[in-house]
Give the backbone structure.
Amino acid sequence: MTYFAGEYDVAVIGAGHAGIEAALAAARLGCHTAVFTINMDAVGNCPCNPSIGGTAKGHLVRELDALGGEMGKTADACFLQSRMLNRGKGPAVHSLRAQIDRRKYSEIMKHKLELQENLELRQAEITDIQPRDGGYLITTQMLAQYLCRAVVVATGTYLGGRIYVGEVSYESGPDGMFPATKLAVALKNLGLPLRRFKTGTPARMLRRSIDFSELEVQKGDEPPQPFSYETERLGDNKVECHISWTNDRTKQVILENIHRSPLYAGRIEGVGPRYCPSFEDKVMRFADKPRHQLFIEPCGENTEEMYMQGMSSSLPEEVQLQFYRTIKGLEHCVMMRPAYAIEYDCVDPTAMDPTLEFKDFPRLYGAGQFNGSSGYEEAAAQGFVAGVNAALKVMGREPFVLTRANSYIGTLVDDLVTKGANEPYRMMTSRSEYRLVLRQDNADERLTPLGYQLGLISEERYQKFCQKQKQKKEEIKRLQSTTVAPSEALNDMLVSRETSPVTTGTRLIDLLKRPQLGYDCLTPFDPTRPDLEPNLFEQVEIEIKYEGYIQKQLKQVEQMKKLEKKQLPADFDYKQLGGLRLEAQEKLNKIKPLNIGQAKSSTRSSRSTSGRHRAFRAFHLPTSASC
């Protein structure tokens, strides 16, 4: 008789941002779950930015919270400063970003895992994984074996991790942790299509060695906005960030030492992120730029480490110190942690379905940087999708698939599994063709009902959500029926805002439609306004101002939903569709899209647009492809 150290419904390998969300989701859905981590002190670690959110990333965090995820609540619990980015642009690209206390974030997340029912947190390095009895047998470095009905791989940058600093390179995970070397070999032997990617992180400086007196101060918003719809109030911003700039001397140091960069010396074979390059790469690729921006950000309330945002590097330590000291405010800086590059193994995500389950390995899922993405937020979103679907599979329930039409998370997953990732994938608002209706302010409206149907949103929270939707409808109705009489005060305000005065009674909704006006300036003329939460007023105002554009995009969403309902057979040979280019035929045969919407998405980058549309119409013609 074979004895196992334990048996689980779902096992999660890795306790970073992806692993945490996967494990919590699976356990909350009722599955006996274990999450394995090489070092329990690294649970929820933030090895790079001490922040959560950012452009498009804030959307992911809000959506995750609306579905029942944990990242937003924890970021709120340890926030230091909060800012809404892109305020000068339209609401589609407004994104929340918060500086956080990175050690407190890790501590809170670890405790949440420890307290979660149905969940066991274990310190163990997984070194092997083998199919067994319809599930998987996983083995640890200590030769303990666990039988698992489903497994989520969320190894971050630990898998085959190798650090590079100048001429030095060695096997390591982030922040000096052990790498997962044996697991990389095991997954390759299992038959997963692995490849090498690379990322990096800047240095950390001692706060008291920085001269802040001449640096630009970057304050947080007042009042700061939370990520979670359940967080009633954040409190005050606790810190300030600062901005400095590089100069010609900084550039000269890089050019004189570029031969010592492992990236340019050819020692790094992994592909790095195009949208977050190392500083030496910025200097070489943008040679005409006279300077680059540097953000100096605190890592926490109880540490003197300052993060050098925008200046990651793999140059030798002495060269790093040399170029940092050419920057205003850092002339006498003391380096606490040097910058480094890290190379790691990840998988080709086109080997997965939209559930993040491997097509050729049932009940095996991937999430986060293991899937070729970058960023804490992208990882957490994928972890949630993988954890939910692993649990649903074990329970015999229908899979959970988000789409491009209802979420940024759906866009993220769809991009990965249909287009793949030739470099670390980063979420951006430009990746969504429906960004005006997929705003960060209405994530709850779009996704909370789905989280409730899953069982991850409580009855109490759902009833509050329903009440909010009722209040929103009533507020729009009130604006439509409330008329403001013309007055000297009203017209003075309108003229001061560079919009026309009124001579007759005007409905509040018509005033709000004017781009120069908002709820704030109409307050003195709106005595019947109810006391509602600010987020609700924000949603109402956006929907009123952009009504025509939103309606147009909603029609596009409905068209996409119709395409997503037209299922495609898994065994269909796309070479039968003569209207497609050979490249698209090969890609579709590899991806095996579930529906016409996904097929359209996967070939969006094809050069022959007209041929592609003819081919989509042809989907309705072959008998073998009928729906």
